[in-house]
């Protein structure tokens, strides 16, 4: 029996235009749990898909100057259901992952992933169907990435755009304009939330919480010394747990939460010695206990520079919603 | 170009006795960095190798009662060199990983991994050669694992031994007695260190440091709610960074450290709400600045129960030793 079933050989995914990769995945301890390991794997799948389809090794790319250039995460969106969500995955689960790339020019790229249990009905990834988020057996993931490089050796600030030599993207499909992530992440960057105002049926859940998170040099950095993109998810979860405690809730309910929607815009990196100042606001649905929206803004404390903006839709009562 | 080169098809590794798996690995962001991601991957490779060769899916195993049983880490040993060590790996690196299993009965198993850069000379994994640790281009990894199950639902304490149905091990080679990890981990369990007394040329580096680490429910648990085995490495690194700061050292030198030898014995798990009390002692070589031994004992604070014992050999001056 082979349990290593990862396989990127299946191009096309039914569309046959060289924009899609399919994988069969066995979930391992190193890619699930109450942590950001699954998100980290999603990121690796984005880089693998680009490496597979765009004539560029995303894991070892250089720009025209010969400097390393990284396919940096700029906007990350995960959409799930109580039946199929990130914290619900455990080792031994078998998944089918389809990944499709869309052309956004030489400096960026969009990847759509659809993650389903093995054997679930999965057609080709079609934007119109993807953005309906209608299949409760699917985790929908949008990754918008930009090629960046360091502007100063050793510093994680002021990263600048920089495409690798030979990055091929013209052959990829265009995303219909109505789904473009640009409007969404521009809104988040300008308004420090993904929310278009609050729906009328929402009331504040708690006073705004302000937390300081010192970057943990023993744990938060990736293989090139940058704040690892999945660490931002860990830091947001860290802040969410503090909100939980402020509300007098216990750890078990935290572990049982269902994150239905998670949007994250990466506006900056930070050095290993920085302290991040995190602002958390939360609203619940009036009368709908457990249906909550949380907005998180992460700044570099000393400079005030915004590092990330994130908005989550959470079912805090978790398992109670299993049949939703 | 395919960058997914993981491949467990190559049984034998030159020995042809069904005890060995070989992999070609492209290092991705999700498996390297200043964190415990690479260690997590080593653990996954142990489980994959057992799943491949022992007729048991380690990712989804159950005992005779039908309860989940986990191939829990009990003793983990990493031996490296300034040229090839865990914190020195980065994405884009290509590795060859050989993994060989040894029979330790129905309740436990030993896995030896040899991790080398692609193209390095690698013969079959032979215990006599392995335990000489002589190749500076190799990271040597020993994993001793035991099958365990929860004795009470929802609790991470009092985990008990429990083999899965159908676990096949008789066909695996026996490890020569002189290399058995049992003497080593028994010593660590009884003496709370892997050291056989200190060599005469060592002097204390700092007074004993005592730290409290509250388990972080947003980050430390695996997909079944247990403290993830790789998290113990993160907690030890967290403590090591506090030692670094106590000594007035900066973050850059911490990131540049070389861990030549890391032994870790897992004596217990802990619940998500626990606080761990960590004791750190360190010695340097007299006159040999930067050559340091660190001993870490982790207890559950409230009960005093010992959870882990670890001893590290570290070059704190890192890069300065690159030609050693």
From TrEMBL, chains A, B:
Residues annotated as signal peptide: none
UniProt key word Acyltransferase: yes
GO MF term set: acyltransferase activity
Pfam families on file: LnmK_N_HDF
Domain (LnmK N-terminal): residue spans on this chain: 23-194
The organism's place on the tree of life at top rank: Bacteria
Alphabetic keyword roster: Acyltransferase, Transferase
Keyword Transferase among record annotations: yes
InterPro entries in alphabetical order: HotDog_dom_sf, LnmK-like_bifun_acyl/decarbox, LnmK_N_HDF
The protein's name in its UniProt record: LnmK family bifunctional acyltransferase/decarboxylase
Species whose genome carries this gene: Sphaerisporangium dianthi
Organism phylogeny: Bacteria, Bacillati, Actinomycetota, Actinomycetes, Streptosporangiales
């Amino acid at each position: 029996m082979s349990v290593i079933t990862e396989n990127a050989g299946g191009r096309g995914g039914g569309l046959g235009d060289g924009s899609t990769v399919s994988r069969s995945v066995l979930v391992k301890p190193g890619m699930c749990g109450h942590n950001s390991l699954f998100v980290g794997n999603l990121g690796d799948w984005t880089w693998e898909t680009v490496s597979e389809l765009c004539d560029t090794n995303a894991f070892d790319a250089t720009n025209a100057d010969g400097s390393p250039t990284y396919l940096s995460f700029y906007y990350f969106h995960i959409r799930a259901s109580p039946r199929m969500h990130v914290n619900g995955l455990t080792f031994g689960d078998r998944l089918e992952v389809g990944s499709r790339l869309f052309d956004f020019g030489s400096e960026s790229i969009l990847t759509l992933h659809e993650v389903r249990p093995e054997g679930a009905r999965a057609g080709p990834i079609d934007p119109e169907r993807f953005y309906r988020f209608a299949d409760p057996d699917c985790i929908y993931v949008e990754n918008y990435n930009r090629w960046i490089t360091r502007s100063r050796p050793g510093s994680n600030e002021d990263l600048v755009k920089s495409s690798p030599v030979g990055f091929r993207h013209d052959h990829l499909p265009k995303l219909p304009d109505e789904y473009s992530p640009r409007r969404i992440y521009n809104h988040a960057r300008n308004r420090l939330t993904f929310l278009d105002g609050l729906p009328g049926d929402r009331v504040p859940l708690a006073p705004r919480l302000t937390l300081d998170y010192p970057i943990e040099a023993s744990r938060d950095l990736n293989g090139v010394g940058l704040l690892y993109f999945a660490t931002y998810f860990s830091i947001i979860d860290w802040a969410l747990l503090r909100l939980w405690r402020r509300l007098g809730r216990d750890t078990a309910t935290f572990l049982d939460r269902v994150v239905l929607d998670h949007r994250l815009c990466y506006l900056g990196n930070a050095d290993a010695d920085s302290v991040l100042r995190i602002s958390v606001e939360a609203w619940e649905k009036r009368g709908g206990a457990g249906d909550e929206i949380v907005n998180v803004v992460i700044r570099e404390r000393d400079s005030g520079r915004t590092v990330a903006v994130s908005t989550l839709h959470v079912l805090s009562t978790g398992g109670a919603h299993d049949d939703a």
